[in-house]
Batch of 4 targets.
Target 1
Amino acid sequence: MSKKVIIIGGGIIGLCSAYYLQKEGHQVAIVDQSNLDSGASYVNAGYLSPSHIIPLSAPGVMRKGLKWMFNKSSPLYIKPRLDLDFLRWTLAFNKSCNAKHVKKAIPTIKAISLLSQDLYDDIKRDENFSFHYEKKGLLMLCQTDKALEGEIKTANLAKQEGLDAKVINLNELKQLEPNVALNVKGATLYKCDSHTTPHEFMGDMKTYLKNNGVIFYTNEKVEDLEIENQKILAIKTNKQVLKANEFVLAAGSWSPILSKKLGLKLLLQAGKGYRINTTNQTNISIPAILTEAKVAVTPMHGFTRFAGTMEIAGINHNINKIRVEAIADAAKRYYPEITLTVEEKNNVACGLRPVSPDGLPYIGKSIKCKNLTVATGHAMMGWSMGTATGKLVSEIISEQKPSLELTNYHPDRNF
């Protein structure tokens, strides 16, 4: 049965939800407070990464976070503040940083990432989209023995999970990247990973959706919800009132602001990430993560992107120049012949990633509201999990059997 669906949020999750919902014959509208040309969906590293099976909340991460709390150039920066939501999130995050949770999370993360990668393939083929998409794998570059030892353990774990991962020596690395000078001790390679140019996919998807009847309300902020008997009747924006049968909350880091109006307290914090683009010739052909610096490097369509940091400091788009310099310095340390210019660093952009305490997204309906499907909390994996999340949202609303078991993604789960 066709339903009228309003999606709150026009990032990768919102667009993919709209894609699969309209395929099922639903009437779909997307409401977003921006012009749909900026944010995390546009400044990310573009990875489709089944290799990223370890959740952010892993053993030792909280200890590192505390250690780095007073270092504004650290890969992970958690700004201490007296805020009840932040304190609740911090306690839940700390509780999740254990081996038992990691073991539980790995198959959950792997399943949605692999499904999502397959769906990207399907979309590109079925819709004849032109977005840049390559399957060259992902390198984990290490400058220290300690980091390399850790990455070898992770690669072995990934192999046990059936993923195409291996350790490579410096000679093999040189064969893979013959035209790039690298200052590293070794690396691991995940052939299972792919990469894209994000704004091209977003552009293709927006054009497709508009041509297929999806309505866009841009520069409209949802300010309130009209609720009756645990159902949303309408949303109130700064411009109008919009009614529907079903609603999707895909507002990223802003999702808890609206969920609170339903009595649903989503534990979620905004994790800011930065990107620097260079159009200068880098000769980098394979995406890489600079392991110790936690910087992602992606050869995109016409430029190379350096992206990184996880700055948990509330919802803001302030640019921290110290953190920008940390990314540029890391690029120079690992790639000695590459220097990012002052102009490139000044043209930095940031995006806010919605981070759940356990590193797993929220996907599903809460008991707090009968006609709201939550789809947020993907942290750094929103791009990798975007298409699969959209399909799951459509299956939930269409009352179909979901492609994946949803228990571990449930928005009402306990921490």
Target 2
Amino acid sequence: MNRFTTSWGAFDLTRFPEDPRDTLRAWDAADAYLLQHLAETEADTEPEAAPRSPGTTVVLGDRWGALVTALAARRPVQITDSYLTQRATVANLRRSGADPEAVRLHSVLDTPPERIDLLLVRVPKSLALLEDQLRRLAPAVHAGTRIVGAGMVTEIHTSTLKLFEQILGPTRTSLAAKKARLIFCTPDPGLPRTSSSWPRSYPLPADVGVVSGRTVTNHAGIFCADRLDIGTRFLLEHLPAGRGAGRVVDLGCGNGVVGTAMALADPEAEVTFIDESFSAVASARATFAANAPATAKAEFVVGDALSQVPAGSVDLVLNNPPFHSHRATSDATARSMFGGARAALRPGGELWVIGNRHLGYHVRLRRLFGNCEVVASDPKFVILRAVRR
């Protein structure tokens, strides 16, 4: 837990799920800079006063709910692609004494508000996601809308500013402060409103087993949305197929190509696709629908790893865990996924993990499962297998 001090109070914030070993903060200098700017430029800046403004406030890309927790008195709309962000937001609102219902939680796939009077944007890592969201929100922006973006200096590029300029209107940036920068955009109602081009589809190569030549669908922001990444390709070449009926989990499913491959290889299997990204699960659903046989059984879950899966109910978990939390390197997600997999697996059930060789997942898996073997490896990746005893 860490304390975030703003002009409207100090808030004890955490990420979700809470992990005492995780030292990463639930806010950063860009969040602080953005709120400081609002306090300095709005008429009501008394230290004890809750920030408020007429109309609808939308916060896009709030990382862990830091912004909407501070701005809860406005009853803002939070738009995020992250289930974990939504859960962190609710927890942080409760911890601050605010009504969790004060913030309307929207995913990036939900219908945006019809009118936006204040738009705050935490610049995402994915330029495609930023473009998709700005195009979706643009019809609700009017000449009087105030638009302020924020990000660390390393997150804001010329391409970022061009998107604001092309989609919403004239754009400029602030001076840097504590390695953070603000974006100021003046709406131009005369700009043409072009719909988002996402989701998009592409055909898989002809040499990736049962999914060769199949079509994959990706919503904006999905990792490697325009091509098959080399790690997933390597896993597809070594899938544990031919097991017949059983429950398989594609954990951190992304666009669902791995789980779909399992459904094609073992038509009697029941595949559960899980990701904390709303866009990823929507992509996986579309990929599965386009390729799996009509009799194939599947479930699609937006959630926190395997926390919603009954213990001892799974035969096989396939996992390519992320090792970044936004811009920071962290093994917190991998720890959560591996621990959840052990709990969800039946005795004799298996966890298959693919990762970069340097991450050393074998050490944690041996500690957790008591065993771990290498299924396949190349100079960059390794596929590991751990069995629930």
Target 3
Amino acid sequence: MTDILTVTMNPCVDISTSTAKVAPEHKLRCEAPRREPGGGGINVARVVQRLGGACAALFPVGGTSGAQLLRLLAAEQVPTVPVPIAGDTRESLHVRDRSTAEDYRFVMPGPNVAASEWQACLQHLTRMAVVPRYLVLSGSLPPGVPVDFYAQLVRLMRERGSRLVLDASGPALAAALEAGVYLVKPSLRELRELSGQALESETQWRAAAQQLVDAGRAEVVVLSLGAQGALMVSRQETVFAPALTVPVSTTVGAGDSFVGGMVHTLASGASLRDAFGRGVAAASAALLGSGTGLCQSADVERLHREVVLQVR
């Protein structure tokens, strides 16, 4: 087994295209579509693979779209652990309006996953002879999967020695944090929902993140702040990274690139601070791409030299 394993319960085939102008009622003539593997943990695995790391992706998969997803991942040489399901793997659509440079993202709910199918995912993980050092739980949960699925997985795999990395939202995020994870990467919106507070200043951001650490819900909180940068809070230190100045072609995949950059660096034995800086560079590199292309290794290396870490 690899050092890193990602779990994506709601994978997809991401279809991206563009049109001259998005408008109601009219036929919108689009460019030839681009198809890429998608879903939070799958994207993290793709990033780790690009950065030269060892990472496998576990996910439920079914139907013709699921077969296409497997072909796309094979083309990128991402090791997969597919768990068959009866339903069809979802597709998602990303359309760029060329007249405004605005992106429209149409996200489908995903297939209904039966209890026996999501339990098969749990069973596969618990039966592994060698557990991954880092287990990344990322993305939404499809219909049929209980909101405490990540929490169940956290409890099972933490006992086996894995470090749990979480990038989720809503009730699934809250439930998993109650179980206690190694690292969580919420957005500011997600942290506001968790805390029930407006969180309008850096002091308030830090305090809310510190509360998660002090309560034992996460050892490390990495707060992504978009154009304002990123903040990392642990028991040892608090570090802020101002946003890098890069031309923004898309924001799709920046968060997954952040997680991939951090986990790859941690698995290589680097410090938490170094991993945070690499994550910032990977997220910034993803802004340069198109569709769901994620970050490229050369861009990450170049931008990493520009990252400034400020100890608070």
Target 4
Amino acid sequence: MIRCKPLLGTFVEIRIEDQLPPLKALEEAFLAIEQVQSLMGFHNPDSELSQINARSHLESVRIHPWTAEVLRIAKEVYLQSQGLFNCGIGHHLVKAGLLPKHKKLKEYAFGGIEDLQFIKPLLVRSPLPLCLDLGGIAKGYAVDKAVDALISKGIKVGSVNAGGDIRVFGNHSQDIQIRNPSKPHELIQIGSMAVGAIATSSLYFANRDTSPKSFMVNPLNQEHVEFSESYSVVASRCVYADALSKVVSISRNTHHPCLSHFSAQAIRIPNTQSL
């Protein structure tokens, strides 16, 4: 059984290999994804993420446990990557026209994820204004929550694919395909996986009509990053695979030291047309 819905700014495909799976499982999985989108969407001015960006430098903001978990993971990857992963670069994407503007950016000197403080487990504040963008890492987390929902409903074998953020589970291997950077509409089979996640960072579908700048920003020098190859990371959970794919693509180092901390591996697929 395969079902697909437009969510998270892409198409989310849920595949269930079980015979006669309960439809309730699919419903719960898509509802989990929708909840992550509602909580952590940058485009929604009423989301918890938008409230953190608007108010956390003025007052403490109470958040959902899922938002708290993603923020803690973001801080963990920030520390392990020595700042190479930092979702506090939203203002650069707003200035480039790649994200919507919710406030006047020139009035602020923005902090990063390192400035977000947990006053209590579900209460956050920042000494500096923030413009966090959880886009990719929240997408990976949504995939994980969808898988959790499927497993909780008794599904034994399946996968969730949100625009290249993929997690598979079950007792037999499933083929894993990623796009060819030289021909993005062509898929390359890179192997198989029974349990685990993979996420890919690339720029081959960047809309240069919207902005001439890349949506990938190096937090250390605040510059937009350009590359023609693709970088994929295999990890136990999609939330980590997605975040680490940014570390690898920005550093262009498939052996970055932080990968071993998360028991992850990276794969580089070259763009043969640019060689």
